[in-house]
């Protein structure tokens, strides 16, 4: 990640769940990309096994991601003038100051925007298909259900693993998280708890919460383990990591990985899709 004068002069303050933390700091460190391994699939697989994730810069075409971003913003705008601020260009995606919880439309599943040409060109495009074909060693498949999201002002996602939501059928799933645009730490990005898939301290966590099917268990609520990321690292270990993301970057992780996410005042848009 490029270092600018701001980050060189003093630590950046980042919202992480219910907390504000300095970056970089012992609590939140920088993700390192795995682009240097793209020419060696065995090393790439080993990296995924060791880390539990792969951070790939520029997997998607930047231009195609920005086209998808504009398509999603137009979709949101068409649903009501109260959602996006008219004081900024549409492509900035700045939310109306009054756009709180319940204002941003629900876009997950299979619908006109998740399966629009601009969005599918990114998440099911030639580049990710070729990447996963190499990584998996077989023709990759995806589900029709797409986790396309925009987050309301100061909204966030608590700490969770994808296993609790999608553990039925094959467990050999790769989640690809794609930010739909440039996303800085201050805007809010996705964080991962490195080591949460294999460290001994997470054994009980993975055998209990991490192995739960919340729908089958008829659990009511978000499915999050906690909204305080420190609870995870203080009890079980691991290291929270994140980075600034550019349009085209992706973060790929497994079902048992610990993930929270924060957003600030933009219609922070991202899409999760599973390959298997």
UniProtKB/TrEMBL annotation:
Gene3D superfamilies to which the protein is assigned, alphabetical: q2cbj1_9rhob like domain
Family matches, as InterPro entries: Phytyl_CoA_dOase-like
Organism domain of life: Eukaryota
Name used for this protein in its record: Uncharacterized protein LOC106156914
Organism: Lingula anatina (Brachiopod)
